């Protein structure tokens, strides 16, 4: 107890939690979770594979899509070890530095995904507004630079998070609210001043997700303006149809993210269940739904998938 009362104490581990109130059903909950992980990792990997193997899909739109799927795969891989440990084996311990590392990767991949969604919105704007110069504007080198910029931004913005947490004493509870390490969840366990952490957390949300969402909305405002200038109804519908998959993906990503941010602000006064549920939806469903959306809504991806599985059967 004297160690726990030390104001500079950092615990050797944290204790992860599953879904509050459903502890007895964790083994059953692990079944759909395992299926979701298989769909997410396998589905995203298959789309990356078919884009890589089909020269007809080496257009900017599909290169950005492969970046998105790679990011989703990374996000799933970041949470998988601890989530399945908690729900399958009831193994709740996670080493302190391992928790900080997992938190860094979860938030970095989230920031990268937001940046890639912005790049995809720009891609749709160029394709509709200036189709004749589409491949001239979005060259391979420029796409690679945009991908590296998304990665560099994510790493640069999220690297201070574990550093800021490591300077704090943890002399209170060591039980986290999730089956993975999430910055606001870890931060609230500290018994020192977390003012800097709160300010920096808010700043990086505004500088990454906030800025990205504003520019995505602006891109679609310009797309709508361009589409309304197309003379034929068929032309307008065709142009808008190329954006459907991306719009659905943006909604899948940002709606749970916004809901999660709101719950974090008011969740201290309510049951942790909505907070935990929305976090799980954000981190688990996004990597699952994205490959399904593009498989169903994008004709070229559907055709490539059909050829792939037809070849496997043959």
From TrEMBL:
Q: Which domain of life is it from?
A: Eukaryota
Q: Kindly list any coiled-coil regions of this protein.
A: none
* Membrane-crossing residue ranges in chain numbering: 25-51, 143-165, 198-223, 243-263, 275-294
Q: Name the CDD domains on file.
A: 7tmA_OR51-like
Please give the Pfam families that the UniProt record associates with this protein.
7tm_4 (PF13853)
What topology does it adopt in the membrane? Multi-pass membrane protein
The record, for InterPro entries, names:
GPCR_Rhodpsn (IPR000276), GPCR_Rhodpsn_7TM (IPR017452), Olfact_rcpt (IPR000725), OR51/52/56-like (IPR050402)
Residues forming the G-protein coupled receptors family 1 profile domain are 43-294
Q: Which UniProt keywords apply?
A: Cell membrane, G-protein coupled receptor, Membrane, Olfaction, Receptor, Sensory transduction, Transducer, Transmembrane, Transmembrane helix
Q: Which GO terms describe its cellular component?
A: plasma membrane
- Where in the cell? Cell membrane; Membrane
Q: Please give the Gene Ontology molecular function terms for this protein.
A: G protein-coupled receptor activity; olfactory receptor activity
Q: Does the keyword Cytoplasm apply?
A: no
Q: Which species expresses this protein natively? A: Otolemur garnettii
Q: Is the keyword DNA damage assigned to this protein?
A: no
Q: Which family does it belong to?
A: Belongs to the G-protein coupled receptor 1 family.
One GO biological process term is: cellular response to lipid
Instruction: Supply the name of the protein.
Output: Olfactory receptor
Give the matching SUPFAM superfamilies. Answer: Family A G protein-coupled receptor-like (SSF81321)
């Amino acid at each position: 107890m004297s160690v726990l009362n030390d104001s500079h104490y950092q615990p050797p581990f944290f204790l992860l939690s599953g879904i509050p109130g459903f502890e007895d059903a964790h083994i059953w909950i692990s079944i759909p979770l395992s299926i979701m992980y298989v769909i997410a990792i396998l589905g995203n990997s298959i789309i990356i594979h078919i884009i890589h193997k089909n020269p007809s899909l080496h257009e900017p739109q599909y290169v950005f899509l492969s970046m998105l799927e790679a990011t989703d795969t990374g996000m799933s891989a970041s949470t998988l070890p601890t989530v399945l440990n908690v729900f399958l084996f009831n193994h709740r311990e996670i080493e302190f530095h391992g928790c900080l590392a997992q938190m860094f990767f979860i938030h970095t991949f989230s920031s990268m995904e937001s940046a890639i969604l912005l790049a995809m919105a720009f891609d749709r704007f160029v394709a509709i507004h200036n189709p004749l110069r589409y491949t001239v504007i979005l060259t391979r080198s420029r796409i690679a630079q945009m991908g590296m910029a998304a990665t560099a931004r994510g790493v640069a913005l999220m690297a201070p998070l574990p550093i800021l947490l490591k300077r704090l004493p943890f002399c209170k509870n060591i039980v986290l609210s999730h089956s993975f390490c999430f910055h606001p969840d870890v931060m609230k366990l500290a018994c020192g001043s977390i003012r800097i952490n709160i300010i920096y957390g808010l700043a990086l949300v505004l500088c990454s997700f906030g800025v990205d969402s504003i520019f995505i909305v602006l891109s679609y405002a310009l797309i709508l303006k361009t589409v309304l200038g197309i003379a034929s109804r068929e032309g307008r519908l065709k142009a808008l149809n190329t954006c459907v998959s991306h719009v659905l993906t943006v909604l899948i990503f940002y709606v749970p993210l916004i809901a999660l941010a709101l719950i974090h602000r008011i969740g201290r006064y309510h049951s942790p269940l909505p907070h935990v549920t929305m976090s799980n939806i954000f981190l688990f469903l996004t990597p699952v739904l994205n490959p399904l959306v593009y498989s169903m809504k994008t004709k070229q991806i559907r055709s490539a998938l059909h050829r792939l599985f037809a070849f496997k059967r043959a």
